[in-house]
Amino acid sequence: MKSSTVNISFNSDLLHEIDRMARDESRARSELIREAARMYIARKKKWESIFAFSANQVKTRSLTVSDIGPAIRQYRQNQGH
Hints:
Blueprint: H1 12-24, H2 29-61, H3 65-79
Helix pairs in contact: 1-2
């Protein structure tokens, strides 16, 4: 995979924290920032899929806002939670 170099500005407090974390984990600043970006993107995609699933369930099951809480409780009971 081709890499590109980018310039990013951080306030000094955040940069200090990034450098401290990188040092504590014995890795480069850029490696830490790449991982943070990957984790952010993965989390964002996960939440987007959760919201899409929820919207689909509301639509296909004709749910209202007041139906959501009881539906979650019922699901958790069925799953043994």
